[in-house]
Design goal:
Blueprint (H helix, E strand, L loop, with lengths): L8 H6 L1 H11 L2 E5 L5 E6 L8 H5 L13 H14 L5 E5 L7 E9 L6 E7 L1 H37 L3 E6 L5 E4 L1 H7 L3 H4 L10 H17 L1 E8 L6 E11 L2 E10 L2 H21 L3 E5 L5 E4 L1 H7 L4 H4 L14 H12 L1 E10 L5 E11 L6 E8 L1 H5 L3 H14 L7 H23 L4 H8 L3 H10 L5 H10 L1
Antiparallel strand pairs: 1-2, 1-5, 3-4, 4-5, 6-7, 6-10, 8-9, 9-10, 11-12, 11-15, 13-14, 14-15
Helix pairs in contact: 14-15, 15-16, 16-17
Length: 476
């Protein structure tokens, strides 16, 4: 078996058009290109993947039929054919009258001595469709994964904050699979030591029989409630209920212990609320509660520090919009987002102190619109240090965008959008040039634009003089 030779006389006798028709059978279609790079004929295989290409392409330079991002590949392919007689396989995206791109994988070869080129193409739309479906499936899996993570987080939070002792027991082996902190207090044990033990335990003989009857009733009816039991070595009485449920292939029991002493339970709940209030007060992030109009009702020490206030009394009744964002502008946006989504997450803005200091912050918010006292809870995190430690280019871009934002009301939206787009485009071109050590060809590939398009943008943004641009083209 010998390699293809473009100078073989046998190909002269065959003819370029005949060779294109024959090679179209090997692929989905073949393109006949003259030595000047102009399409002279398009031969379509019986699959008829692009029957109207001959009308669109014939008479046009072959690179002009491709998208701007892949024209360079056709030019490279033609150069390889001119020097070696045959090219490597390259994928090119063509524009079509329907508007959708047509991905084609080409291998080109020179046929005959007149320099004509035949490019054999394979339709890659089926592969692109599979790739798109794979990406969509991956995104769906990611969304499901995070949804399950959020559900698990809410479950763990409710499980641990419950004032009643709760045990999750395998109905087959009667081994404790999970227990909350309140269950550890019921049995006066560290919670981790309860997991793995056989239930029932820690109760007197009469109570053990009562629990066995309770579990049997829960298995048959799905739920059985409250029966009194007494712990071993104690006179404290507890009410116990059980629920039966399935998880995957296992049957589980949810055993709940509630105190018969209502005052003790109330004290325990009050202790939990007191600890939560204490933790919020000591939190390094600012926490604020406002009414639906934005008047501050409660705030912790971190917010008073940000607002440069000496006491909570100075903050109560004041408008939160006086301390964050643009006065009268940002708070209505928060309320609108809360009405639409129920929560606001990590909105970047600025906090202002009563003495004029400013701090970059991230704001999250939730609200309770129903009830006797509708309110909104805000948390603010100081991100000034994070921004200060970021890349210099990012800080410059942030400051520039802030300067443009300050022009709102003085410049039209169209001009603001145009200036912002130019600013961001210039920033990323500079970053690409820095990444590629000022190699314009590599920078164009990094940015996904043609080299000619990059030169146009460099001139528009005055990032290179004409002489430097010519030097760059020679170096590339």
């Amino acid at each position: 078996m010998r390699l293809y030779d473009a100078n073989d006389p046998a190909y002269d006798a065959l003819g370029a058009s005949a060779a294109a028709s024959m090679l179209a059978v090997a692929g989905d279609f073949a393109v006949l290109v003259d030595p000047a790079g102009v399409v002279r004929d398009v031969s379509v295989a019986p699959t008829d993947v692009a029957a109207d290409l001959s009308k669109e392409w014939v008479g046009r330079p072959w690179p002009d039929t491709a998208t701007s991002e892949t024209r360079l590949k056709i030019e490279t392919l033609l150069r390889e054919v001119a020097t070696k007689g045959i090219s490597k396989r390259r994928q090119v995206n063509h524009t079509t009258a329907a508007g959708a791109d047509l991905p084609i994988a080409y291998t080109a070869m020179r046929v005959g001595r007149d320099g004509s080129v035949v490019a054999v193409g394979r339709d890659m739309r089926h592969l692109s469709s599979l790739q798109q479906r794979l990406v969509e499936a991956q995104q769906a899996m990611e969304r499901d994964y995070w949804r399950l993570r959020h559900v698990e987080t809410r479950y763990r939070l409710l499980f641990q904050l419950a004032s009643d002792g709760i045990l999750v027991v395998d109905a087959g082996t009667m081994k404790v699979l999970d227990a909350n902190s309140a269950a550890g207090q019921v049995f006066d044990e560290v919670t981790e030591r309860l997991i793995g033990r056989s239930f029932p335990f820690g109760v007197n003989v009469a109570s053990a029989r009562t629990l066995e009857d309770l579990i049997s009733a829960a298995r048959s009816a799905g739920r059985a409630g409250d029966v009194p039991i007494v712990l071993e070595g104690s006179d404290q009485q507890w009410n116990v209920s059980a629920s039966c449920f399935r998880q995957e292939t296992a049957t589980l029991l949810l055993i709940r212990f509630s105190s018969t002493d209502a005052s003790e339970q109330s004290q325990r709940e009050e202790g939990v609320r007191s600890r939560i209030r204490d933790l919020i007060e000591r939190s390094p992030d600012a926490f604020i509660v406002t009414d639906l109009d934005g008047h501050i009702l409660e705030a912790n020490r971190a917010f008073l520090d940000l607002a440069e206030l000496a006491s909570l009394e100075q903050a109560r009744g004041a408008l939160l919009s006086s301390f964050i964002g643009r006065p009268g502008a940002d708070f209505p946006v928060f309320v609108s987002m809360l009405k639409k989504h129920g929560a606001v997450r990590l909105v970047a803005t600025a906090a202002r102190g009563s003495h004029g200091s400013a701090t970059e912050v991230e704001v999250s918010a939730v609200w309770v619109p129903d009830g006797d006292e509708p309110s909104i809870g805000f948390t603010m995190r100081d991100i000034g240090r994070r921004l200060a430690s970021g890349p210099q280019g990012a800080r410059d871009l942030t400051r520039a965008v802030e300067e443009l934002t300050s022009l709102v009301g003085r410049v039209t939206l169209r001009d603001l959008v145009r200036d912002t787009v130019d600013l961001v485009e210039r920033h990323f071109i500079e970053a690409a040039l820095e990444l590629t050590n000022d190699n314009r060809t590599s920078a164009a590939e990094v940015l996904g634009v043609s080299r000619q398009s990059l030169y146009v943008k460099l001139r528009r943004h005055r990032l290179a003089s004409p002489s430097a641009e010519r030097d760059g083209e020679a170096a590339d």
